[in-house]
Each structure stands twice: as structure tokens, then as C-alpha cells.
Amino acid sequence: MTAYAAFARSGFLTSLAYRNEVWANIFGKLVQVFARVAIWLAVYAGVTSVDGISITDMITYALLGGVVMGATRYDRIVRAVGTALKTGDVAVWLLKPVHYPLYLLAVEAGMSAYTFLLAVIPTIVVVALIYGMQPPASLFHAAMFLPFCALAFLIHFLCAAIFGVLAFWLMTVFSLEWLLQSLIALLSGMLVPFWFFPEPFGAIASHQPLAWLVYYPSAVWLGRLDVGQTLLYFGLGLVWTALLAAALALLWRSASSRITVQGG
Predict the structure, then answer these.
(1) Could you tell me the pTM of the whole model?
(2) How many helices and strands (H and E) does the chain possess?
């Protein structure tokens, strides 16, 4: 564990060294948040509420989407695996006494911590001061928002790592990155909350793992889930996390064997 803590610290310090890249990424996220807020202001067009959802709720939803999606970058994880595969560095990692996916998780945790603390939070504060933001529905919902954000980080990482490992068979990361980007945009609730989806698509979308990236953390903050539902969907998120971790472990074991056969 000491080695992985050092990798996380290295990721944090690397972000400090390349802070211009981080700020450029945050500026892009800031533009996206402003764009989503502008779209919802245009959609509501003077109407204060649609299906019980106020315009303030939707602005808060757009800001929270920036909070949970602004720190972690799926493209960075997918490209890291693709670069290691292309350069052959992944074979070197197999010789080291560390688990490569856990190394990626530790580095991403360090980089995400830097981005979240020093860039995302100040950005959201600025946008919230301009447009306004709803407070948490209750102390319980405020307390549960952070565990849901932790789940969002883990599921985000696991999905990106699974797509990255698939490059061992497809030998390309560009198409995998593009596919994951499309799936996250549609199925995380980042663009449109699932309560605006027609049935049964809303029910289906709200039970797949990407829903825990944006939809459920935002729904918890806004109080769209009562106490029982919040705990239920937190448990379901843990189940999805365990299933994705098992899938990544199986894929990595198969990919490692594939490298051994080719190298032998």
C-alpha cells in the first residue's frame, strides 16, 4: 500500500508540474458548464418549473455534473493504457511487483485530487455565484453526496480502465475513447437527467453503471431520492463497482497471458 500511496502522491505532484494542462482542461469544463446552463435557460424560456423540476434545480444539476466529472478524465486513463501498449512499457510493468491497474488507480486518484481541490471547486464556486445554486436537500443528503462522488470516481476509473485494456485485442484506443465518450455523454445523465427520459428508457438508463457518474450524485444533492432510496442506490452502486472491478481483473489477467504468449 505504501507504493500505491507514493504513486498517488506522484500523480498529485505531476499535476503540479503540468498545471497549465490541468487549467486548460478545467477551462474546457467551465465552457461546457456554461453551455449546459445556457441550454437549460433557453429550454425553460421563462417557465419556472417543468414536471416539478425548477430552473434552479437544473442549473444546480449542471454545476454538480461539472463537480463529479471535472476531476477525473476517462481519456487520460484510456490513453495511458494505449501508450503503454504501443511503446511496450506494459511488459515492463508485468515484471514489477505492482498491479498495473492499481497503479493507474493510484496515479489517477492523485491527479483527480489536485484537480478537484485546486481547480474544480473554485470553478464551481465562481459559476454558482453567477447563476445561483441550490443547497443540499438535507444534512443527510449532503453527507451522502461525498460517498456518491467516491463511487462516481471508482466507476469512472473502472469503465475507462476496462476500455483501455480492450485495446490489447483491438490494438487501438482512439475508437474506444470515442465510444466511451459517447456512452458517458448519453448514459451518465450529464446532458439530460433521466427524469426527462421517456419510459421505459429512463428506468433502463437509471440502472446501468454510468448512471452513478452524474445522475445519482446530483439526484442525492437535490433530494430527488428519499433516505431509503439513497441507501438502496448506494448499495447498488457498490454492487456495480464490485462487478466492474471483477471484470477488469479478468480482462487484465487475460491480457497479461496474451502478452506472455507473444513474448515467449
Answers:
(1) 0.84
(2) 13, 2
C-alpha cell at 41: 435557460
The three cell numbers locating residue 70: 471535472
> Is residue 263 domain-resident?
no
How far is 35 from 40, CA to CA, in rounded Å? 9
**Rg (the chain; Cα; Å):** 19
Mean pLDDT, residues 253-260 taken together? 74
Listed in sequence order, the DSSP H helices in 96-226 are 100-115, 121-131, 139-165, 167-170, 174-187, 201-205, 215-222
Gap between the Cα atoms of 200 and 198, Å rounded: 6
* Domains of the chain: total: 1
Q: How far is CA 202 from the centre of its chain?
A: 20
Q: Which three cell numbers stand for residue 83?
A: 501508450
* Domain encompassing residue 47: 3-257
Cα 222 to Cα 68, 130, 148, distances in angstroms: 14, 19, 13
Mean pLDDT for the chain? Answer: 82
pLDDT > 80? residue 126: no
DSSP letters along 69-80, please? HHS--HHHHHHH
CA distance 146 to 115: 16
CA distance 144 to 207: 19
Whether the predicted pLDDT of 59 surpasses 70:
yes
Residue 101 in domain: yes
